[in-house]
Amino acid sequence: MSAAGSTRPVRWGILGTARIASKVGRAIHDANGAQLVAVASRDESRARFWIDRHTVGHAAADAKLAFLPAAAPVASFGSYLELLRQPDIDAVYIPLPPSLHCEWTCRAAQLGKHVLCEKPLALNLAEAKRMKDACQSANRHLMDGVMWMHHVRTPAMQKVLTSGELGELRRVTSAFSFNAADFPPDNIRFQRALGGGALGDVGWYCVRATLWAFGGLPARVWATARYDRDVDVNLSATLWFAGNRTAAFHCAFDTTWRKWFEVAGTKGSLVCDDFVNPWDAAKARFWVHDQQGQGTQHVHPHCIQEVRMVEVLCGQIRSGRFDARWPEISLATQQVCDAIANSARSEQVISLK
Protein backbone atom coordinates (compact mmCIF):
# COMPACT_ATOMS: atom_id res chain seq x y z
CA MET A 1 0.00 0.00 0.00
CA SER A 2 1.27 3.47 -0.82
CA ALA A 3 2.22 5.84 1.99
CA ALA A 4 -0.01 8.54 0.46
CA GLY A 5 -3.08 9.02 2.63
CA SER A 6 -1.76 6.48 5.16
CA THR A 7 -0.83 6.96 8.79
CA ARG A 8 1.92 4.33 8.73
CA PRO A 9 5.56 5.43 8.60
CA VAL A 10 7.17 6.29 5.27
CA ARG A 11 9.61 3.45 4.62
CA TRP A 12 13.06 4.59 3.51
CA GLY A 13 16.02 3.08 1.72
CA ILE A 14 19.50 4.56 1.31
CA LEU A 15 21.53 4.19 -1.88
CA GLY A 16 25.17 4.22 -0.82
CA THR A 17 27.14 4.35 2.41
CA ALA A 18 28.88 7.73 2.11
CA ARG A 19 29.70 9.52 5.35
CA ILE A 20 26.67 11.82 5.09
CA ALA A 21 24.45 8.72 4.94
CA SER A 22 25.14 8.16 8.64
CA LYS A 23 23.76 11.58 9.57
CA VAL A 24 20.68 11.29 7.38
CA GLY A 25 20.17 7.64 8.31
CA ARG A 26 20.02 8.68 11.96
CA ALA A 27 17.61 11.47 11.00
CA ILE A 28 15.32 9.00 9.23
CA HIS A 29 15.36 6.81 12.34
CA ASP A 30 14.65 9.77 14.65
CA ALA A 31 12.02 11.47 12.49
CA ASN A 32 8.34 11.10 13.28
CA GLY A 33 6.58 9.13 10.57
CA ALA A 34 9.72 7.63 9.02
CA GLN A 35 11.36 4.21 9.14
CA LEU A 36 14.71 3.10 7.73
CA VAL A 37 14.19 -0.35 6.20
CA ALA A 38 17.02 -0.89 3.70
CA VAL A 39 20.54 0.14 2.68
CA ALA A 40 22.25 -0.67 -0.64
CA SER A 41 25.85 -0.59 -1.76
CA ARG A 42 27.65 -1.90 -4.84
CA ASP A 43 28.94 -4.59 -2.49
CA GLU A 44 26.32 -6.16 -0.21
CA SER A 45 28.90 -6.72 2.53
CA ARG A 46 29.51 -2.96 2.73
CA ALA A 47 25.78 -2.34 3.18
CA ARG A 48 25.63 -4.98 5.91
CA PHE A 49 28.73 -3.51 7.60
CA TRP A 50 27.07 -0.06 7.58
CA ILE A 51 23.93 -1.49 9.17
CA ASP A 52 25.91 -3.42 11.81
CA ARG A 53 28.07 -0.38 12.56
CA HIS A 54 24.97 1.69 13.33
CA THR A 55 23.12 -0.99 15.28
CA VAL A 56 23.22 -1.05 19.08
CA GLY A 57 25.51 -3.88 20.15
CA HIS A 58 27.59 -3.83 16.96
CA ALA A 59 29.25 -0.42 17.38
CA ALA A 60 31.55 -1.24 20.28
CA ALA A 61 34.34 0.86 18.76
CA ASP A 62 32.23 4.00 19.02
CA ALA A 63 28.83 3.76 20.71
CA LYS A 64 27.93 7.22 19.38
CA LEU A 65 27.58 5.67 15.92
CA ALA A 66 24.76 3.36 17.03
CA PHE A 67 21.18 4.49 16.53
CA LEU A 68 19.38 1.44 15.13
CA PRO A 69 17.77 -0.92 17.66
CA ALA A 70 19.49 -4.29 18.01
CA ALA A 71 16.57 -6.06 16.36
CA ALA A 72 16.08 -3.47 13.61
CA PRO A 73 14.84 -5.22 10.46
CA VAL A 74 17.07 -3.25 8.07
CA ALA A 75 17.76 -5.14 4.85
CA SER A 76 21.05 -4.95 2.95
CA PHE A 77 21.36 -5.10 -0.84
CA GLY A 78 24.31 -5.51 -3.16
CA SER A 79 22.91 -3.24 -5.88
CA TYR A 80 20.98 0.01 -5.97
CA LEU A 81 18.52 -1.38 -8.49
CA GLU A 82 17.70 -4.34 -6.27
CA LEU A 83 16.74 -1.99 -3.45
CA LEU A 84 14.63 0.17 -5.78
CA ARG A 85 12.68 -2.87 -6.92
CA GLN A 86 11.48 -3.63 -3.40
CA PRO A 87 7.73 -2.90 -3.18
CA ASP A 88 7.82 -2.08 0.53
CA ILE A 89 10.06 0.99 0.12
CA ASP A 90 8.38 4.37 -0.37
CA ALA A 91 11.31 6.80 -0.54
CA VAL A 92 15.08 6.78 -0.99
CA TYR A 93 17.92 8.99 0.10
CA ILE A 94 20.71 9.32 -2.49
CA PRO A 95 24.14 10.34 -1.07
CA LEU A 96 26.02 9.13 -4.17
CA PRO A 97 28.55 11.28 -6.08
CA PRO A 98 26.85 14.06 -8.08
CA SER A 99 27.67 12.29 -11.35
CA LEU A 100 25.25 9.52 -10.33
CA HIS A 101 22.39 11.67 -9.08
CA CYS A 102 20.54 11.96 -12.38
CA GLU A 103 20.65 8.25 -13.25
CA TRP A 104 19.53 6.97 -9.88
CA THR A 105 16.94 9.68 -9.20
CA CYS A 106 15.28 8.93 -12.55
CA ARG A 107 15.39 5.18 -11.90
CA ALA A 108 13.98 5.64 -8.42
CA ALA A 109 11.09 7.73 -9.72
CA GLN A 110 10.34 5.26 -12.49
CA LEU A 111 10.17 2.49 -9.89
CA GLY A 112 7.77 4.49 -7.73
CA LYS A 113 10.09 5.96 -5.10
CA HIS A 114 10.15 9.49 -3.74
CA VAL A 115 13.66 11.00 -3.68
CA LEU A 116 15.76 12.99 -1.23
CA CYS A 117 18.97 13.67 -3.16
CA GLU A 118 22.19 15.16 -1.86
CA LYS A 119 23.42 18.41 -3.30
CA PRO A 120 24.50 19.53 -5.79
CA LEU A 121 21.36 18.13 -7.37
CA ALA A 122 23.13 17.27 -10.64
CA LEU A 123 26.17 17.96 -12.78
CA ASN A 124 24.27 20.61 -14.75
CA LEU A 125 20.86 22.14 -15.34
CA ALA A 126 19.96 19.72 -18.16
CA GLU A 127 20.39 16.77 -15.81
CA ALA A 128 18.48 18.54 -13.04
CA LYS A 129 15.55 19.12 -15.41
CA ARG A 130 15.52 15.43 -16.35
CA MET A 131 15.38 14.53 -12.67
CA LYS A 132 12.54 16.92 -12.02
CA ASP A 133 10.59 15.71 -15.07
CA ALA A 134 11.08 12.05 -14.14
CA CYS A 135 9.75 12.62 -10.63
CA GLN A 136 6.89 14.80 -11.77
CA SER A 137 5.83 12.30 -14.45
CA ALA A 138 5.76 9.56 -11.81
CA ASN A 139 4.00 11.84 -9.31
CA ARG A 140 6.93 11.44 -6.95
CA HIS A 141 8.50 14.10 -4.75
CA LEU A 142 12.04 15.38 -5.30
CA MET A 143 13.95 17.37 -2.68
CA ASP A 144 17.63 18.20 -2.35
CA GLY A 145 19.47 17.73 0.93
CA VAL A 146 19.93 21.38 1.95
CA MET A 147 19.07 20.87 5.60
CA TRP A 148 19.21 24.46 6.85
CA MET A 149 16.14 25.35 4.80
CA HIS A 150 14.08 23.16 7.16
CA HIS A 151 15.33 24.54 10.50
CA VAL A 152 12.71 26.48 12.48
CA ARG A 153 15.18 29.38 12.52
CA THR A 154 14.92 29.81 8.74
CA PRO A 155 11.29 31.03 8.52
CA ALA A 156 12.00 33.26 11.53
CA MET A 157 14.85 34.90 9.59
CA GLN A 158 12.70 35.17 6.48
CA LYS A 159 9.99 36.92 8.49
CA VAL A 160 12.53 39.61 9.40
CA LEU A 161 13.58 39.99 5.76
CA THR A 162 9.99 40.46 4.57
CA SER A 163 8.80 42.60 7.48
CA GLY A 164 10.41 45.83 6.29
CA GLU A 165 12.48 46.05 9.47
CA LEU A 166 15.69 46.11 7.42
CA GLY A 167 14.30 48.56 4.86
CA GLU A 168 14.92 47.79 1.21
CA LEU A 169 17.23 44.81 0.88
CA ARG A 170 20.44 45.71 -0.91
CA ARG A 171 23.16 43.12 -0.28
CA VAL A 172 23.68 39.46 0.58
CA THR A 173 27.19 38.35 1.52
CA SER A 174 28.04 34.78 2.50
CA ALA A 175 30.84 32.28 2.94
CA PHE A 176 31.13 28.54 3.35
CA SER A 177 34.56 26.95 3.50
CA PHE A 178 36.66 24.33 5.24
CA ASN A 179 40.27 23.22 5.04
CA ALA A 180 40.50 19.87 3.21
CA ALA A 181 44.30 19.65 3.35
CA ASP A 182 44.13 16.24 5.05
CA PHE A 183 41.58 14.76 2.63
CA PRO A 184 42.91 11.86 0.50
CA PRO A 185 43.68 12.69 -3.16
CA ASP A 186 40.94 10.34 -4.40
CA ASN A 187 38.19 12.12 -2.44
CA ILE A 188 35.30 12.84 -4.82
CA ARG A 189 35.58 16.56 -4.04
CA PHE A 190 38.76 16.59 -6.14
CA GLN A 191 37.40 14.60 -9.09
CA ARG A 192 35.74 16.72 -11.75
CA ALA A 193 34.19 13.74 -13.55
CA LEU A 194 32.32 12.81 -10.36
CA GLY A 195 31.04 16.36 -9.81
CA GLY A 196 33.72 17.58 -7.44
CA GLY A 197 34.57 21.20 -6.69
CA ALA A 198 33.92 23.79 -4.00
CA LEU A 199 31.06 25.47 -5.87
CA GLY A 200 28.85 22.39 -5.95
CA ASP A 201 29.89 21.09 -2.57
CA VAL A 202 29.75 24.23 -0.43
CA GLY A 203 29.00 27.14 -2.78
CA TRP A 204 25.59 25.56 -3.43
CA TYR A 205 24.59 26.65 0.09
CA CYS A 206 25.65 30.25 -0.52
CA VAL A 207 23.76 30.43 -3.81
CA ARG A 208 20.68 28.98 -2.11
CA ALA A 209 20.93 31.53 0.70
CA THR A 210 21.18 34.37 -1.81
CA LEU A 211 18.15 33.24 -3.82
CA TRP A 212 16.22 32.62 -0.62
CA ALA A 213 16.94 36.14 0.65
CA PHE A 214 16.26 37.96 -2.63
CA GLY A 215 13.48 35.71 -3.91
CA GLY A 216 14.58 35.48 -7.53
CA LEU A 217 17.36 34.90 -10.03
CA PRO A 218 20.23 37.34 -10.68
CA ALA A 219 20.49 39.14 -13.98
CA ARG A 220 24.18 38.31 -14.37
CA VAL A 221 27.09 36.77 -12.48
CA TRP A 222 30.87 36.90 -12.44
CA ALA A 223 33.29 34.53 -10.72
CA THR A 224 36.97 33.79 -10.32
CA ALA A 225 38.46 30.53 -9.06
CA ARG A 226 41.66 28.71 -8.30
CA TYR A 227 41.81 25.17 -9.64
CA ASP A 228 43.62 22.06 -8.46
CA ARG A 229 43.41 18.88 -10.57
CA ASP A 230 40.92 20.78 -12.76
CA VAL A 231 38.55 21.25 -9.82
CA ASP A 232 37.68 24.61 -8.27
CA VAL A 233 39.04 24.63 -4.73
CA ASN A 234 38.63 28.35 -4.03
CA LEU A 235 35.93 30.44 -5.71
CA SER A 236 34.53 33.95 -5.29
CA ALA A 237 31.45 35.21 -7.08
CA THR A 238 29.49 38.42 -7.55
CA LEU A 239 25.81 38.41 -8.52
CA TRP A 240 23.76 41.35 -9.76
CA PHE A 241 19.98 41.47 -9.25
CA ALA A 242 17.28 43.84 -10.39
CA GLY A 243 16.35 46.67 -8.04
CA ASN A 244 19.89 47.79 -7.19
CA ARG A 245 20.63 44.58 -5.31
CA THR A 246 23.93 42.70 -5.29
CA ALA A 247 25.39 39.61 -3.67
CA ALA A 248 28.80 38.08 -3.19
CA PHE A 249 30.06 34.83 -1.74
CA HIS A 250 33.23 32.86 -1.18
CA CYS A 251 33.53 29.08 -1.01
CA ALA A 252 36.66 27.00 -0.62
CA PHE A 253 38.40 23.76 0.33
CA ASP A 254 41.56 25.58 1.46
CA THR A 255 40.24 28.07 4.01
CA THR A 256 39.22 27.67 7.63
CA TRP A 257 35.73 26.58 8.69
CA ARG A 258 33.18 29.37 7.97
CA LYS A 259 29.44 29.17 7.32
CA TRP A 260 27.90 32.62 7.68
CA PHE A 261 25.76 35.13 5.82
CA GLU A 262 24.66 38.74 6.15
CA VAL A 263 21.63 40.33 4.54
CA ALA A 264 21.88 44.12 4.58
CA GLY A 265 19.16 46.64 3.86
CA THR A 266 18.75 50.40 3.95
CA LYS A 267 17.75 50.37 7.64
CA GLY A 268 19.47 47.38 9.19
CA SER A 269 21.06 43.99 8.69
CA LEU A 270 20.59 40.35 9.64
CA VAL A 271 23.62 38.19 10.44
CA CYS A 272 23.75 34.42 10.91
CA ASP A 273 27.18 33.02 11.72
CA ASP A 274 26.27 29.34 11.21
CA PHE A 275 23.42 29.19 8.71
CA VAL A 276 24.49 25.85 7.17
CA ASN A 277 24.16 24.09 10.53
CA PRO A 278 24.25 25.60 14.01
CA TRP A 279 27.52 25.55 15.92
CA ASP A 280 25.40 24.51 18.90
CA ALA A 281 22.16 22.67 18.06
CA ALA A 282 20.69 23.82 21.38
CA LYS A 283 21.26 27.48 20.48
CA ALA A 284 20.51 28.21 16.83
CA ARG A 285 20.80 31.98 16.64
CA PHE A 286 20.90 35.04 14.44
CA TRP A 287 21.26 38.78 15.02
CA VAL A 288 19.38 41.79 13.73
CA HIS A 289 21.31 45.09 13.76
CA ASP A 290 19.69 48.51 13.48
CA GLN A 291 21.12 51.62 11.78
CA GLN A 292 23.20 52.46 14.86
CA GLY A 293 24.72 48.99 14.98
CA GLN A 294 22.68 47.90 18.00
CA GLY A 295 22.16 44.15 17.76
CA THR A 296 19.37 41.90 18.99
CA GLN A 297 20.01 38.17 19.26
CA HIS A 298 17.26 35.72 18.32
CA VAL A 299 17.58 32.12 19.53
CA HIS A 300 15.72 29.07 18.21
CA PRO A 301 16.76 25.93 20.13
CA HIS A 302 15.58 22.33 20.11
CA CYS A 303 15.54 21.66 16.38
CA ILE A 304 17.61 19.02 14.56
CA GLN A 305 17.43 20.27 10.99
CA GLU A 306 18.10 16.95 9.24
CA VAL A 307 15.26 15.36 11.21
CA ARG A 308 12.96 18.23 10.24
CA MET A 309 13.98 17.79 6.59
CA VAL A 310 12.95 14.14 6.63
CA GLU A 311 9.70 14.97 8.44
CA VAL A 312 8.83 17.66 5.90
CA LEU A 313 9.26 15.27 2.99
CA CYS A 314 7.38 12.49 4.79
CA GLY A 315 4.49 14.88 5.37
CA GLN A 316 4.37 15.71 1.67
CA ILE A 317 4.45 12.04 0.74
CA ARG A 318 1.58 11.18 3.08
CA SER A 319 -0.45 14.13 1.81
CA GLY A 320 -0.68 12.53 -1.63
CA ARG A 321 -0.35 15.96 -3.26
CA PHE A 322 2.54 16.75 -5.59
CA ASP A 323 4.54 19.82 -4.53
CA ALA A 324 6.69 21.37 -7.28
CA ARG A 325 8.16 24.05 -5.00
CA TRP A 326 11.22 22.13 -3.77
CA PRO A 327 12.42 20.89 -7.18
CA GLU A 328 11.95 24.40 -8.59
CA ILE A 329 14.17 25.80 -5.82
CA SER A 330 16.79 23.17 -6.68
CA LEU A 331 16.64 23.96 -10.40
CA ALA A 332 17.08 27.68 -9.73
CA THR A 333 20.13 26.95 -7.58
CA GLN A 334 21.54 24.68 -10.28
CA GLN A 335 20.99 27.32 -12.97
CA VAL A 336 22.89 29.95 -11.02
CA CYS A 337 25.70 27.53 -10.11
CA ASP A 338 26.05 26.59 -13.79
CA ALA A 339 26.36 30.27 -14.74
CA ILE A 340 28.94 30.88 -12.01
CA ALA A 341 30.99 27.85 -13.07
CA ASN A 342 30.85 29.07 -16.68
CA SER A 343 31.98 32.53 -15.62
CA ALA A 344 34.93 31.22 -13.60
CA ARG A 345 36.10 28.99 -16.47
CA SER A 346 35.61 31.62 -19.20
CA GLU A 347 36.66 34.63 -17.09
CA GLN A 348 33.62 36.50 -18.37
CA VAL A 349 30.42 37.99 -16.97
CA ILE A 350 27.54 35.59 -17.69
CA SER A 351 23.96 36.77 -18.20
CA LEU A 352 21.03 34.63 -17.10
CA LYS A 353 18.04 34.56 -19.42
Polypeptide structure, described:
- The chain has 353 residues and is an alpha/beta fold.
- The protein folds into two domains: 10-147, NAD(P)-binding Rossmann-like Domain (Rossmann fold); 152-302 and 335-351, Dihydrodipicolinate Reductase, domain 2.
- Helix content is 33%, strand content 27%.
- It has nine helices and 15 strands.
- The protein has helices at 19-30, 44-53, 80-84, 101-110, 125-137, 153-163, 198-214, 305-319, 325-346; strands at 10-15, 34-40, 75-77, 91-94, 114-117, 142-144, 169-179, 220-228, 231-241, 245-252, 254-265, 269-272, 284-289, 295-300, 350-351.
- A nine-stranded mixed beta sheet has the order 14-13-12-11-7-10-9-8-15. Strands 3-2-1-4-5-6 form a six-stranded parallel beta sheet, with helices on both faces.
- β8 (220-228) and β9 form a beta hairpin.
- α1 packs across α8 (305-319) and α5 (125-137) runs antiparallel to α9 (325-346).
- The longest helix has 22 residues, at 325-346.
- The radius of gyration is 20 Å and the shape is globular.
- The mean pLDDT is 95.
Task: Write out key terms for the chains shown.
353 residues, alpha/beta, Rossmann fold, Dihydrodipicolinate Reductase, domain 2, 2 domains, 9-stranded mixed sheet, 6-stranded parallel sheet, 9 helices, 33% helix, globular
The gyration radius over C-alpha positions equals 20 Å
CATH architecture of the largest domain: 2-Layer Sandwich
Helix content: 25-40%
How does the overall form come out from the CA principal axes? globular
Quick one: CATH class of the largest domain? Alpha Beta
CATH superfamily of the largest domain: Dihydrodipicolinate Reductase, domain 2
Provide the domain count: 2
The number of distinct helices, counting runs of at least 4 residues, comes to 9
**What is the count of β-strands?**
15
- Named CATH topology of the largest domain: Dihydrodipicolinate Reductase, domain 2
Largest sheet: 9 strands, mixed
Instruction: Report the sheet-strand fraction.
Output: 25-35%
| Broad structural category | alpha/beta
Show unreliable segments: none
Question: What is the rounded distance between the termini?
Answer: 44 Å
- Spatial arrangement of strands, main beta sheet: 14-13-12-11-7-10-9-8-15
